[in-house]
Write a structure and sequence with these properties.
The relative contact order is 0.09. This protein has seven helices and three strands. The longest helix has 19 residues. The protein is mainly alpha-helical. A hairpin with a 5-residue loop joins strand 1 and strand 2. Bound molecules: zinc ion (ZN) (2 copies).
């Protein structure tokens, strides 16, 4: 469902507040790029966002769109379907399985779980079409990245103590 205009205004308010907190200037480009993603239901890629924003701001470059999308992602204002900053990934495993993807390093690994193979499909999905396959993507922080973050935190704490 397309967000209602009040919802969109509210999200733009969040954008303003978040940019201010991060010390980043609000520009017409940033506003339009965010608005385009926030109101779309299609999970558009950067090229699509760029094309649409150009209807209102003809001079905007694809490079600006990419940089703005990464900024919005870093500020937690938007998400990606795939791990951040990764291109389309290929999977040689065509049997039924699921994925764990690390949001920090992009590590993607298969896992298996009968519960996920045949989950109860919500009616919301049935209203969209028929189901052929279910593949679950679990995102999180991998063990290596969390160990790295732990070490960094410990080092920081030590630094504060002395
Ligand atoms: Zn990781
Ligand atoms: Zn896989």
């Amino acid at each position: 469902m397309r967000p209602k205009s009040e919802e969109l205004e509210q999200r733009i308010g969040q954008l303003r507040a978040r940019l201010r907190r991060a010390g980043v200037k609000m520009t017409p480009q940033r506003l339009e790029i965010f608005r385009e993603v926030a109101r779309s239901v299609e999970h558009p890629d950067a090229e699509t966002v760029c094309r649409r924003v150009r209807n209102r701001l003809p001079m905007v470059s694809l490079d600006t769109v990419y940089r703005t999308l990464w900024l919005l992602l870093d500020l937690g204002l938007i998400n990606t379907l795939d791990p951040p900053r990764q291109r389309l990934r290929f999977d040689g495993n065509t049997s039924s399985h699921h994925h764990f993807v690390c949001v920090k390093c992009g590590m993607a690994r298969d896992f298996w779980g009968k519960e996920f193979d045949k989950p109860e499909i919500p009616d919301a999905v049935k209203n969209l079409g028929s189901v052929e396959r279910v593949r679950v993507q679990v995102t999180g922080v991998c063990l290596r990245c969390s160990a790295k973050a732990d070490r960094k935190n410990r080092a920081l704490r030590k630094g504060n103590e002395t």
